[in-house]
Fold Peptidoglycan O-acetyltransferase.
Amino acid sequence: MLFNSYSFLFLFLPICLIGYWGLRHQGWARPAIAWLVICSLAFYAWWNPSYLALLMGSVSFNYVCSVGLARFSSAKARKATLLTAIVANLSMLTYFKYAVFSIESLNAIIGTSYSIGSILLPIGISFFTFQQIAFLVDSYRDRSGTPNFLDFCLFVAFFPQLIAGPIVHHKQMMPQFSQIGSGRLRTSHLAVGMTIFAIGLFKKVMIADEMAMHATPIFDAAYAGNTPTFLESWIGALSYTMQLYFDFSGYSDMAIGLARMFGIKLPVNFDSPYKATSIVEFWRRWHITLSQFLRDYLYIPLGGNKGGNLMRYRNLMITMLLGGLWHGAGWTFLAWGGLHGAYLMINHAVRNSPIPATATRLLGAHAFKAVCWATTFLAVVFAWVLFRAPTWEAATNIVSSMIGLNGLSMTSSVSRLHAITWIPLLFAFVLLLPNTQQLMSRYRPAFGFSKLDDKHPAVIAWHWRPSLGNAILIGSLFVLSIMHLNRVSEFVYYQF
């Protein structure tokens, strides 16, 4: 079931909200949580009922392991439990996500023809697996105890974040579940949640899906062996750059908005990453919860920045290579992660050199910042080609045209030229306007939102507050989005 579908918007969500707030109104807090768990499991089963057993098996197994970590007094027994749980979780993830890729790669290397058939990837498996691994590691480290099974089920399966994140932390979520009590519906939760959701839906339906129609034909043509012109390659790359931005930004808004309708806050997962002036800053703004997971549970355990620059660079590269594979089982994803690992290494090396101070002195602070932004953005755009292209050949085909190796032709079809009118507008949108969390920051809609400078006149002007004008505006965005749901498409991150 998709957030941007009629069945979700006009059947599932109303039933879920009415049942939840109805139970709370009657003073039945625990049944309200149970209702959310039931709705979340139904939401997951909508995709493929057979994989509901996989989800519940994973939840039950990890819950039992967490009980063991809380109760075992022997350090050896606790360590063995943690290692067993991690191996089991990663084995499940590896089988479903990487088995076919591994066999195909082996066949290509040694010239064999082994086959295990096709394996349908359970949706959301990367997210709920990583989330539970983080929970177990934290339980092992701080002996924080084990929640009751119902709360743990909701922690893992809560439908706004089950399929594509954000990856939530138990210290953020469990206290909220324990504080769910009785009481009437708080209209502020609905107003804030529906506003954020409507903004996210508009981003997805009216912008991301529009840009997909410009990017997809160019990438498909490159995959088929056709060479795009210089102009077409840039239209394809920039269209996908904007498609992915508004697709993931829209999903993140919708997830936060949905949770807030139930009076629950999720962490911020997206913070205007195209405003970043370095790759380090980009990864602090893009897929924030995954970046934090990779930092806390991979980069730091590997040694982080201890041991000098060579060790830091090694750990950065390992982390980003595995981060690339997390996004997809393919060589292009691995190359995308490796490219970002190289970017980060260069970024840290430049930061530790005299270059920033010298450039600032020669160019001025503002000009140097503009150069840093342009360099960062172009680096991200080239990397997105690897992320999007279905094969290495398609990626090199487009990149070669982007850098002029296939000529500098500016010809293109009229339909593709239409994207040129969109791209500058979207640039202005992402660079000049506050993001959704900043717009709603007065109501603290999520954990970890960027605090605004309230003295800035643009910020004051864009702060959302309940009013007839805002209600008409948000309602119009929602209606316009609903009118275009005939071209329903999955979110890009649903495939991970």
